[in-house]
Structures are given as structure tokens and as C-alpha cells.
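Thanks for the sequence, V.! I ran Putative proline/betaine transporter right away. Repeating your input here for the record:
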Amino acid sequence: MSSVSATSSAAAAAPAPGNSRGRVILASLIGTSIEFYDFYAYATAAVLVFPRLFFVNEDPTTALLASFAVFGVAFVARPIGSIIFGHFGDRIGRKGTLVASLLVMGIATFLIGCLPTALTPGWEFLAPALLVVMRFCQGLGLGGEWSGAALLATENAPANKRAIYGTFPQLGAPIGFIVANVLFLVLNLSLSAEDFESWGWRIPFLASALLVIVGLYVRLKLVETPAFQKVIDTGEVAKLPLARVFVSSWRPLILGTFIMLATYVLFYLMTTFTLTYGTTASSVEDAAAAAEAAGKPFNAEAFVPGLGYTRDDFLVMLIAGVVFFGIFTLVSGPLAERFGRRRTLLTVTSGIFVFGLLFSPLFGGGFVGTMGLLVLGFTLMGLTFGPMGAVLPELFPTNVRYTGSAISYNVASILGAALAPFVAVALWRAADGSPVLVGLYLSGSAVLTLIALLLSKETKDVSYTDNVS
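Predicted structure:
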């Protein structure tokens, strides 16, 4: 009997199984890699082929704007997804919610690759409508993905390493970009323009299924994070996380949204607008000749000039720039641990403000200026995006952390991301082909983020397990 008793006591005293460092890194990284892979796959297709495949009755500029409008649908859906997945993330736990968000996101992306286009007889109106539905479903899944991955990383982090662990999910952005665009580049080089437009564009969307399978395998092996397990053990689980976060943490919700604003505007200008501007013909004559060669209508009055690079050349330039994004995402974690999140972000956001003023001069500086813009912009992107994996979750108590960080992150996505490509194209046209107003738009967003940072407090030393609302 005593032997049994001793065994039972030992079992009771044994620590609960935890997540290994490697499993935390991979599980938090894989989901955001898929998230940004999905984004870049759609963003690239939205520039290169979707205007011609899904908006066939519009002139090129209007078709491009329509394609970006559908692109923005996912960002409208993301706050809805943040509420849904945030509720379950704060009610039942991080693990199950992350599995569900990954499935919703992955299935929607795969189905985009299966859609008929508007060129298919009888699908002129239904094809664009289905594309909108799939983008909305992508947005729902994405609404719960980032915050769950950030919590998985930071709530498993050792003491004084939350900002470092928080960079793991952030690395998904450069990884997703490189994988998606290398795949598009390989397809461009190996397929004829007709084959790429006919079926080759589908491959990146269909291939996402492989990444989802790997992500599910890793996430199903996780155990609950220590911070949320303590909330369960102490009975502090919020019955209605959405109501609780608005009552107890409305100020962090607002500050977190605007702290993220400049990061989002920079992110989508550097990826979507630069590709659009870089690959648009530099003269009306070149644009007319390209349209004639492709057998497409051309509206000279709607034309605005760009840089005239081929899409393959500019994708290579973008991929080279994104390498700096990845490097400085890793660099940002130790910086935020040493100097604090607030001080680090104040410095970097000031740099984004100056970068916005240099946007047009750099773009007008030929190949060297354009590469300088890409390298500098993506360096700033890594330095501002990396700390967000720790900053936004640290603003909120544990029992509403999933909901709070998700809402701030995804409302910022509407203000800074859904609008950015659309606004940038409108400003580009308003300035007769100059990106000067686009740069001022970026600087303006940096000012709003600087104000939010000045109104916020340092979160480096906040408790992560003894903090509930």
C-alpha cells in the first residue's frame, strides 16, 4: 500500500509535460509561414494574372483595382476571425484553436487553385464571386492564426526571452514570401505565358496543401501553454473574452492597433505596391505595344507609368530584399530584450517616417536606387515586425490575451493593409505616375504609430502568468 501511495504521490508531483523548444519554434513558424505564403501567392497573382482572369470586362487599371479590392476582403474578414478564434483560444486553449485556424485557412487557399475563371463560359459573374468567398474564408482563418502562433511562442518562452521567442512566428513572413515567389518565378521561367495564365498560376495555391499537412502534424503534438494552463487551474477562464477585453483592456486595444499600423502599411507597400509599380511599363508606347502583343485592349487615358521591369527581374529583386527582412527580424528580438520594446520601436518607426520621405527619390534612382529602396525598406520591416510577436500579447492579461492581441493585430490589418494597395494605386495615379504621395502616406502612418508608442508603457517586465483581468 505504501509503495502504491508513494508512486501516486510521485506521479502527482511530476511536472506536466511541456513543449520542447524545437516543437515550439516549428509549430509557431509553420502556421505563419503558411499565412504569409497564402498572402504572397494571392498578392502576386493579384498583380500578374487575376485582373485578366477574373475581371475580364474592365480596362487594365480598373481590373487591377478590382483585384486589389478582393485582396482586401480577407482583411475585412480577419477581425471577425479574431473574435471567433480569440473566443475559443481564451476559452478552450491555444492548441485546439490553432489547429482549427490552420484548417480554415489552408482549405480556402487550396480551393482558390481549383476555381474556374471568368473566361470559362457561364462563370463570368460566379467566378469572381467565389474568389471573394474564398478570400473571406482565408481571412477568417488568418484572423486567429497570428495571435495564436505568437502566444504559442511567447507563453512557452524562458524568462527574459519573450521578444526572442516572439520572432519565431514573425519569421514566417520572409519565409512565406521567398517560398511563394520563388515558386512563381520557377513557373514563369519554365512555362510559356499562355500556360502560366491557363493553369500554372494554380500550382502555388494547390501546393499549400503540403504545408498545411505538415503544420497539422506538428500542432496536434503540442500540449497547452503553461500560462493558459494556469488560467484553467485557477478558474480564471473568461466566459465571454470579447466582452471582458473591451471592459478591462479597451485602452491596450486602441494602442495596440495603432502600434501595428505603420508596420502593416510598410509591409504591404513593400510587397504589393512595389511589384505593381516596378512591373508597369515606363511609357505609354511600351504599354500599348505590350497590350497589342497580348491581344488585350489598351486605354491610354487610364495609363500611369511605372519602372518597366519584367516581372521575373523584379521578383528576383524582391526576393533579394526579403533576405534582409528575415535577417533583421532575427536581429530585432535581442534588441527588444536589451533596450525594451518601446524604445526599439520608437527608433525604428522614426526610421520608417524618414524612409517614407525617401520613397520617391530612391524609386527614381535607377536600379541602384530601387535596390536600395528594397533593402532599406525590408530591413526596417524586419526591425519593426519582429518585436510585435511579443509587444501585442504583452499588452493584455492572460485570460483575454488571444482575443485582445488578435483584435488589435487584425483591426490594424484593415487600417494599414486592406487599404494600402488600393490607396497607393490611387495616390500613384493622382501624382501622374510618381510614388511621392505613396511615400508621404507611409510617413503619415508612422506618425500615428509614434503617437501610440509615446502613449504606451514598456511591457518588457510585465508578468505573463500572474496577470488576469
